[in-house]
Amino acid sequence: MVRGRGGGGGRTIRKRWMASKKGLKLLLALLTTVTLTSFAPALAPFPVLSSSRHYLSSGNDRGFWIADDMFWKDGQPFQIIGGDVHYFRVLPEYWEDRLLRAKALGLNTIQTYVPWNLHEPAPQKWVFEGIADIESFLKLAQELGFLVMLRAGPYICAEWDFGGFPAWLLAIEPALKLRSSDPEFLQLVERWWAVLLPKMAPLLYENGGPIIMVQVENEFGSYGDDKKYLHHLVTLARRHLGNDIVLHGRELREEEIEKKGRRGRRERRYTTDGGSKDTLENGTILGEGVFSAVDFSTGDNPWPIFKLQKKYNAPGKSPALSSEFYTGWLTHWGEQIAETDANLTAAALQKILSRNGSAVLYMAHGGTNFEFFSGANTGQNESDYKADLTSYDYDAPIKESGDVDNPKFKALRRVIETYRSVALPPVPSNNKRASYGLVEVSKIASFFEVLDTICSPMEVVEAEHPIAMELVGQMFGFVLYVTEYPQKETSSILSIPKVHDRAQVFISCSVDDNGSPIYVGVIERWSNKALAMPKINCSSNIGLFVLVENLGRVNYGPYMYDRKGILSPVILDDVVLHQWKTYPISFQRFINHSKDNPIKQAANSRINKILIQNSLKDHSSRFTFSPKESISEEPGFYKGHFYVDPRNQVRDTFISFSGWSKGIAFVNNFNIGRFWPLFGPQCTLYVPAPILQHGENVVGIVQC
C-alpha cells in the first residue's frame, strides 16, 4: 500500500498485486514582471509601476510588464506575435527545425504546455530527459531569439491524455476530486510543482531566461468555481517563482461551450471571449492582480471582445491578447480531417495585429501524439465519446512533418511580416522525404499464443468483479478480462453497461484451452450495443475473454474522471458474471521479447503488406475493405523489415495502412501511434527520420 499522503487516513494508490481522467475560463497565467523581489504576501495586489519607467530602455532595465494597456519589454512597447509548438509532440532532434520554421513565419514568442503525466509517469518517478527535456527546449528557443509563454498546468487539456494529469491519480482511493481544493489532490500538485517550477525559475525573463508568462490552470471558469483551489495555485506559483507576477485568466464563450456539448469538440483560452456572467465569475480573481486575456473563434470581430476584456482587468492593465488564435482545428476518429481557409485565417489575424493587438497562433506547429498520449472528448454525456487522432497536424501553418510550402503558412507570413520591425528569415524548403515501397509484413504470433509473454502470470489479478485498468497498475493500452460461464442451450446476450473504451469479445471451451478463442464481436463505449453470443458445444464451462482498449482519456469537461477498462458488472442473459482474472497487457514487452528471441512466421499465416511512402496520400481518405482483403479478426503481431541504403541520407517517411483494420505500429521499437483505416480518417502514420537508421529497420504491428 502506498500512501497518497503522509499520516493516517490518507488515500491509497492501488497496486496490481492488491486485488488476489464565448466567458472567462481561469488560466492563471503568471507574467513575471520587472524584478524578482523577496516574497511578499502570496496574494498581494499587482505592484504599482511608475509611469516614468515605461519609457526607459537602459541596458539594466531588463523586464517584461504591463502598463498603459500595453505589454512592455525592456522599456519599449511590445507586440506578442506567438505560436504554440509543444516540445512533447516533436522529437528533440527536430526541435530546432520546427522552431526555425516558426521564426520564418514571423513569430517572436513560443507557447507550450507542460504535461504532468509525461514528467511523472509513476509516483515520484521524474522524467526530464529526451522528449521530456523541457529545459533544453526552452533554452533552445531563447538561443533562436524567442520569448516563451509557459503553460504549467497542473491541468492543460491540449487534446492530451487526461488533460495532462498522470493516470495514476485514478488509482488513488478514495477517489481524488480533481481540479479542486481537495487536500489530497493539492498535496500531489505541490509535490509536482516543487520539482517543475524551481527548474523554470532560472529561465524567467527577469533572470536572463526567455519566459515572460507562466499560465496556471486552464479554462477553469467553465469547469468549476473553487476559488480556494485557484488561490492555492497562485500561492504555490509565487512561492517558487517570486511575487512579482501577473495572473492570467481565460474562459470559453457560452456559445462555444454549447458547441462543444453538441459536437464533442473543445476550445481552450487564456481569458474569455466575453460571454456568460457565470463563467466570468467562476474563472476570475478580481482584485488580485489578475490579467485577463481573451480569445475567440477565428473570424469573430475581436475588438468588442477586447473591450469587454478591460472590465476584468485593472485600469491600464488590459493589453489586447488572443492567447489561442486558432489556425485550424482538432480531428477525432470517425470525422473528416478538419481544415480551415488560409485567407480567412490570415484576414482574422490582420484584424488583431492592425490595431496593435497581440495573438498566439494555436497551433503554429501541431506535431504528433506518439505512443498512447492522444486524448479524447465527450459530448452531452460520457458515452458520447470521441477519441483524438494520432496526428495533431491541426491544419496548422507548419504541418505535422514540418512542411511550410502551403497556402496557410504563406498567407499568415504575409500578414505577420507587415507588423514586425525586423526582416523575417527566408522560408526554409520542405524537408525531403523518402519512399521505401511495399514492405511484406508477416504474422509472427496471435494474441492468445503469447499471453504469458505480454502479461506475466505474477501480474494477473483475481477478483469477484472486473477491476479498472488503473487499479491493476496498467495506465495505457490494453487489459484482458477472463471468466467462465456454464454452457447454454441456446445463444445468449452479453452486455457491459460501462466499458471504456472498446471491448473485443472472444469465447472458447475453457479458459485453459490451448486453442485460440473464437472472436465474437465488439462492444464500444459510444454505442454500447449488447452482443449476441453464439452457442458452442463444450464438455465444460465456456471461457469468456474481453480485451479492452484504452483509446485515450477524456481531456476536457465534466467527465474527466475517466478510468479505463470494464467499470460495471458484465451481464449474460440477465445474470451477472463473477470470478474474474485481469491481465495487464504490455505490447512493448512482446516487441522486446521478439527482438531478443526471434519468432518464426506463424503457421498458415498470409503475407500482408504496408506501403512506406513519402507523402500523406492516404491521410484524409477512408478505406473500405472487401472480404477477401480483410485480415484475421483475432489480435495478432506482425513484423516486417525495410532497408535504408547507407549511401543515402536517412529521411522522414510515412507508413500507409490501407488494407488493414486497426492497430498500433512500432518502428525500431518506437511506438509511432494508432492507425484505424476502417474508422478513418487517418490512414497513414508519420515516421520521423530520427527513429530510422541506416541498414535494416523493423516495423512491428499489433493488429487489434
Please give the structural blueprint.
Layout: E1 2-3, E2 12-13, E3 28-32, E4 64-67, E5 70-73, E6 76-78, E7 81-85, H1 95-105, E8 109-113, H2 116-119, H3 134-143, E9 147-151, E10 172-173, H4 183-200, E11 211-216, H5 227-241, E12 245-249, H6 254-263, H7 277-283, E13 290-292, H8 302-310, E14 321-326, H9 342-353, E15 358-365, E16 376-378, E17 385-387, H10 407-418, E18 437-446, H11 451-454, E19 461-463, E20 478-485, E21 492-495, E22 499-500, E23 502-508, E24 518-524, E25 531-533, E26 542-549, E27 565-566, E28 571-572, E29 575-576, E30 580-585, H12 587-596, E31 607-613, E32 636-644, E33 653-656, E34 663-667, E35 670-675, E36 684-687, E37 695-703
Parallel strand pairs: 7-8, 7-15, 8-9, 9-11, 12-13, 14-15
Antiparallel strand pairs: 1-2, 2-10, 3-11, 3-12, 4-5, 5-6, 16-17, 18-31, 18-32, 19-30, 20-26, 20-30, 21-25, 21-28, 22-27, 23-24, 23-26, 28-29, 31-33, 32-37, 33-36, 34-35, 34-37
Helix pairs in contact: 4-5, 9-10
